[in-house]
Amino acid sequence: MSYPAGIMSKVTITGEIRGARPRRPAPKWRITSLEVLCAVLVLALVGQDWLVGVLDVPVLRTAATVFVAVCVQAMPFLVLGVLISGAIAAFVPASLLRRVLPRRTALAVPVAGMAGVALPGCECASVPVARRLMQQGVAPAVALSFLLAAPAVNPIVLVATAVAFKDAPMMVPARFVGSLLTAVVMGWLWTRFGKAEWIAERALRRLPDHDGTSRWAVFAETARHDLVQAGGFLVLGGLFAAVFNVVVPAAWLEALGGQVVFGVLVMALLAVVLALCSEADAFVAVSMSALPLLPRLVFLVVGPAVDVKLAALQAGAFGRGFAARFAPATFVVAIGCALVAGAVFL
Amino acid sequence: MRRETQNILLVLLGGALLKLALTGTYLRYVKASLQPWLVATGAIMVLLALVAIARDVRGKTAGHEGHEHTGRSPWLLLLPVLAVFLISPPALGADTVNRSDRTIAQQNSASGFAALPDEQVVSLTMTDFVTRTAWDDSGSLDHRTVKLTGFVVQKDGNTFVARLAISCCAADASPIKVRLLGGDLAALADDQWVEVTGRVVPGSATKDTAYTPSFTVSAVTPVATPEDTYES
User: Which of A71, A267, A291, A313 to mutate to test binding with chain B, by most B CBs within 10 Å of its CB?
Assistant: First the structure.
């Protein structure tokens, strides 16, 4: 949907040319992605003035700024994630992971959830790491609860929450418990109901043994491959976030007033479509001062667990079939866990 | 997509991040504290691509990696590259303020307010000013001449001076605005940066006005756009 029109037409044209003359010997000079890239760059340079003119509308300018901002903000975290992923692939033998984690999946799930405390980053960092853990033989349920916990329970996010909600300090334990509970419940649900075939085969395929290649080469190659693949999906998520940022009317929030039930639902949806960084969402939540604390807690618990950016990354890492089941289930579980945590702490 | 193309895309993307970070343009999109991370990220991307290219040239990668199936998703990496190098979107402004009715003013009564400096004209950040008008009951701003810096927003016949506060990146920007009264304000264009001097109308920032204070203007001076347009 978001490929520039130039690319798509180029691809079909070359496809038709090749399809029409199947018997000819392959020409020496074939049009590959490299030539397409050059053509797109030249076209973009030539059409720069036209492009800038078309985008010179306030709403498009705002959307373009938000799009670049989301990409720029998330890239450092994604790079951190792929470096960790590369390091796991190159330096951590699968046997070590098996020894460290409890043998029973049901016990390993909460352990993995707590381990999320150690990865101080946004959700973008945790997706490549979780995928690499699966490839190294960690049970999917365990890797998934790490994926959900890491962006929400790490110290940086909790400190940011405490700073934002300095007049409501109970938001911090409420958020910690709500997010950890979401991760553990989803892990257990996957243990009970999850099917391995929902995850794309490429995500679970063991890496070939790298005999003769140095570990550093494995590290660099894994990190590069993960970066190229996840990066594209991150950009897709950034596009969605930018569109929703300009089309979701602020009047939504005004209309809510103090209604708690409706407020919970709308805030949960807002968390999904706005795709804020988990280190920033507390500051946005505190500014929605017209709402009671409970809907805002739901916003903070749902956001790091499921949003459009994360769903795009998951579709890229684990396949579309997985994301289509996992994201909605997480959405429901996260709302439930946030309500439980809110009932206890707020 | 071919491996060579992926590597070129990575070099371009890393280059775009380095350009943003080193020219200061990154302040339109994210907070100043992210700069070293952006430099490191851009450098790592370029480095990973160069390592792969060098290994390919020396023929060290196995043949099957030449056409790995990453699908078409990496093409999307081209979008931020084109956006940064060709379009270079501006910092958020009046359009964002008009789009959002959230308000930055948060209850700050617990921590109290520091005394204002004893000067003829007090320069305040918009955040500080709006928070004080909403929550400082001591009336410390009444009858004091204040100078604010922000951009102009014209909406429904009212003129505001506004600023955006970000806590992470431009996606979480919250508007802070002050309604201007008096003088010939309608001629000011949206997004024009100004310094306004004047006095707050006491008691104007209430729940009914969504904590937007009114400000009686004595002077408006157009100024150049600051390098970092956001407050935090």
Answer: A71
